[in-house]
Design brief:
The protein contains eleven helices and 20 strands. It is an alpha+beta fold and 397 residues long. The protein folds into two domains: 2-45 and 151-220 and 333-394, FAD/NAD(P)-binding domain, CATH 3.50.50; 90-143 and 222-331, 2-Layer Sandwich (D-Amino Acid Oxidase, Chain A, domain 2), CATH 3.30.9.10. Strands 1, 2, 8, 9, 10, 11, 18 and 19 form an eight-stranded mixed beta sheet that branches. Strands 5-6-4-14-15-16-13-17 form an eight-stranded mixed beta sheet, with helices on both faces. Strands 3-7 form a two-stranded antiparallel ribbon. Helix 1 (15-26) packs parallel to helix 11 (357-372) and helix 2 crosses helix 11. It is elongated and about 70 Å long. The protein starts with a strand and ends with a strand. The structure holds flavin-adenine dinucleotide.
Length: 397
């Protein structure tokens, strides 16, 4: 059975697919979103909630994150949904002189590009974080790091998108994609239903390679698991959200990476300790390549919780109420693929946001809508195009 022709079919109802569908609906496009499970069944429903700016190197991702932050500030009003946007700021805790000198250099490069980050001395750190371990010698501080509730963001895109005519069909895994003689795309789901459209967007997150395979294409995106523990609701322990410098420093400096404790390096642990709107703390997280297994492990959870305890001994009697794992869609260069596949007219990819998809959702949606409607994107994103040089390969070639 063939349905009516849509302008665009978006595959995947995660935050990226829904943002893309919403901004396309604002451009008066008839959009259908196809989701194999539920809304947010992928990473967007199993993640932290940060719009984190100060971890980013100057470049396109920082530029996009700044744009997204500005968009988020007005998005609760625009979507008529309380996105639980909060601006608590963030601190990256520093324990050694070596970490301090690497972070000073990093902060200087960010300042040069206009990002408002500074280094705080121990006394000021303790004023802002009275319960922090006294082993901490300094921290970075950025007042602009913010957060939203990803579930609310997805709900908001759906609510407003549907008012504009956007359709969503759930529990329909896409199984086949082909180009018809009339130049339309035909997308078939596992129950045999067929949908046609002028354009298709692969927004299937960590599953984007499976969708690409349906059009004889390989894209280097891999699932990178993150495990998180959630505490009971407790009073605020400090003024801001928290990260540790050890993981960031290891990423910036290979020499420091080699000196990490083996288990922390193997599990890719970097502490994030962030307070939700309701007063629960999210303690994260691991970065592991374990295929599509999104379970949690005793080793993963115990190590992230131990890291949190090292920095905040006061947590020792706080209850953990839930743990979960999610699969970040990780590309080889850490950047998402945004754009049309050369030679596949009307087949677009918006996937590979790894640990930044929540932060980058609004800007991604807006840029994708501009690309798909043939407008000039408001940011220069040529380097994010899904090209051969980034490992995107057509099997027939
Ligand atoms: C532990 C953890 C912490 C994180 N913390 C943050 C953070 O603080 N800030 C931040 O910005 N980002 C964070 N991220 C990253 C963020 O969650 C992701 O970048 C983002 O959710 C990716 O969104 P997506 O829509 O591309 O993918 P997903 O949310 O995975 O959505 C893809 C969707 O496609 C569907 N799908 C797959 N195959 C098919 C098919 N055949 N047919 C139809 N549908 C299909 C899936 O069911 C899924 O719903 C974190 C991630 C994790 C795991």
């Amino acid at each position: 059975m063939m349905n009516k022709v849509r302008d665009v079919i978006v595959i995947g109802a995660g935050i990226i697919g829904l943002a893309t569908a919403y901004y396309l609906s604002r451009e008066n496009k008839r959009v259908l979103v196809l989701e194999k499970e539920e809304i947010g069944a992928g990473a967007s429903g199993a993640c932290d909630d940060m719009i984190l700016l100060q971890s980013k190197k100057p470049g396109i991702l920082l530029e996009m994150a700044l744009e997204s932050l500005n968009m988020y500030k007005n998005l609760s009003d625009e979507l008529e949904t309380d996105l639980e946007f909060q601006n608590l700021g963030g601190m990256i805790l520093i324990e050694t002189e070596e970490q301090l000198s690497i972070m000073e250099e990093f902060v200087a490069s960010q300042n040069k590009h206009g990002l408002d980050v500074e280094i705080l001395d121990k006394e000021t750190v303790i004023k802002k974080q009275p319960f922090v371990s006294r082993r901490v010698i300094a921290s970075t501080y950025s007042s602009i790091d913010s957060q939203v509730n990803p579930f609310r963001v997805m709900q908001g895109f759906i609510k407003k998108g549907q008012e504009l005519g956007m359709e969503i069909r759930k529990h329909l895994p896409v199984k086949r994609i082909s180009m018809t003689k009339t130049g339309l795309w035909e997308v078939e789901t596992d129950n045999g239903e067929k949908f046609s459209s002028k354009a298709v967007v692969n927004a299937a997150g960590a599953w984007a390679p499976e969708i690409c395979k349906l059009v004889e294409m390989d894209i280097p995106i891999r699932p990178k698991r993150g495990q998180i523990a959630i505490t009971e609701q407790i009073p605020p322990l400090g003024e801001t959200n928290i990260w540790d410098a050890e993981y960031i420093v290891a990423k910036l400096n290979p020499f420091m990476a080699k000196r990490r404790k083996k288990i922390l390096a193997e599990l890719g642990i970097g502490l994030s300790f962030t307070r939700t709107h309701d007063g629960n703390y999210f303690i994260g997280g691991t970065r592991e390549f374990v295929g599509y297994d999104k379970g949690t492990t005793i080793e993963g959870i115990s190590n992230i919780v131990t890291q949190a305890l090292r920095y905040f001994p006061i947590l020792k009697n706080v209850s953990i109420i839930r743990t979960f794992g999610g699969l970040r869609p990780a590309s080889l260069d850490g950047k998402p693929f945004l754009g049309e596949i050369e030679g596949l007219n009307g087949f677009f990819v918006a996937a590979g946001h790894e640990g930044d998809g929540i932060a980058l959702a609004p800007v991604t949606g807006k840029l994708m809508a501009q690309l798909i409607t043939g407008q000039k994107p408001f940011l220069s994103i040529e380097e994010l195009a899904p090209t051969k040089s980034r490992g995107v390969v057509m099997r027939k070639n």
